[in-house]
Amino acid sequence: MTRTRVILRAGALVVPAFALLAACSAMIGVHIGGSLEQPVARFGNDVAKPEKACVNGFSVQEVSHPRMAPVWSVQAEGSRCRRLELVIYGQAPKGFETAIPASPLRAGVRYYVRASGQTGGPLTRVPWMGGGDYIFEDGAWRPVDPRQLQP
Predict the structure, then answer these.
(1) 129 Cβ neighbours under 8 A, 6+ residues apart
(2) Residue 58, C-beta contacts closer than 8 angstroms, at least 6 positions apart
(3) Spatial contact of 111 and 105, defined as CB atoms under 8 Å apart
(4) Residue 7 confidence (pLDDT)
(5) CB atoms within 10 A of CB 133
(6) Which of 2, 15, 35, 54 has the highest count of CB atoms within 10 angstroms of its CB?
């Protein structure tokens, strides 16, 4: 077998492996706490142990709005994600730009929080996303089961 054929066969095995990795995505938990006026989002799958996450975008949408209108959105400048431990509502983290300025939040209204970014190292970057429905009631943010029909 010629050297060219060996290289082509090796390439035929490597390319599908990278394509498979690129098609994968991961989930990272996004947990909301803090006050109504200034909620704080932390990342990680364990609420008690927040982690840094490489974030590209972060948005908050009002669930009861007919088009789930965004009430705040930020995006990383350029194409690189930024490692963040937390995001404070209304404050664009360093290296981010505000896409939609923050609107005041209201108690008793459901909001959908969404974050996205990249996991892994330079050769194994995998997109991730996370988020969920939250509502501020009785002085605290709590997650809402998205299967509930009432907005």
Answers:
(1) 25, 27, 28, 114, 115, 116
(2) 41, 73, 74, 87, 96, 113, 114, 115
(3) yes
(4) 43
(5) 19
(6) 54
79, two tokens: 């194409």
Residue 95 CA to residue 147 CA, distance in Å, equals: 35
Furthest C-alpha separation in the chain: 73
- In degrees and rounded to multiples of 5, residue 83 shows phi and psi of -80, 120
Instruction: Return the pLDDT at 122.
Output: 64
Q: In 10 A of CB 23, how many CB atoms?
A: 9
Q: Could you state, in chain order, the average pLDDT of each consecutive group of 10 residues for the chain (151 residues)?
A: 48 40 68 96 88 94 89 91 94 96 96 92 80 95 77 49
This prediction's pTM: 0.77
Per-residue pLDDT, 15: 39
